[in-house]
User: What shape does this take?
Amino acid sequence: MTYDKTIAFWCSVLLLSTMALSNPSILNGQTATPNKTNELPNDVSLFKRMIGKWDSTVRIWSGKPGDPAVESKGVSEFQFVLNGQFLKESHTRKMGDKEITGIGYWGYDKTKKKFTRTWMDSLTTRSVIAEGTLDQKLKALTYYGRVDDSKTGQHDKMMRYELDFSDPNKVLFKIYDLSIHKDAKVFEAVYVKQVPPPSNSK
Assistant: This one.
């Protein structure tokens, strides 16, 4: 073995030894994989962070463009149901002197490989159904679905729904009426998780 080849051989051994020490999986014959700890899970386990009670601030724009939003405060409680295949949201809030209740189901359809959302509330007799996908870069889910407008009588209005997880301290849910404009926001809910009271146990 020539001098140059000897130097190259021992450099290769040193490099492999350094790699093995920094990544023990190489010693087991495993291939190193990129660190994806910052990625959100692309299935129903995405909603684990929602378990518990959340205070919500809801804003609704239902008047002319430029009119102020109607704001109300509420509480949503999230829990997994049906063997953990769906996240159930139970929502209550006061809007003026009216109490509003709603039930929503968030899930992931493994056949379609899409996230799903179903919503019903005490304001109307309709069920709102939407399907969407996860954007890892934006840390957000985007859904699309059609609804009937009970106020105007318009049928099959296309809506866009966005569930934003980019802020670790809150979740933002927005609805856009695409029959008006692609950025016509008509609804916004800001969820902030309730902090359990400190334990009195010693």
User: Anything to note?
Assistant: Residues 63 and 173 are 20 Å apart (CA to CA). The first helix runs from residue 3 to 22. The longest strand covers residues 70-81.
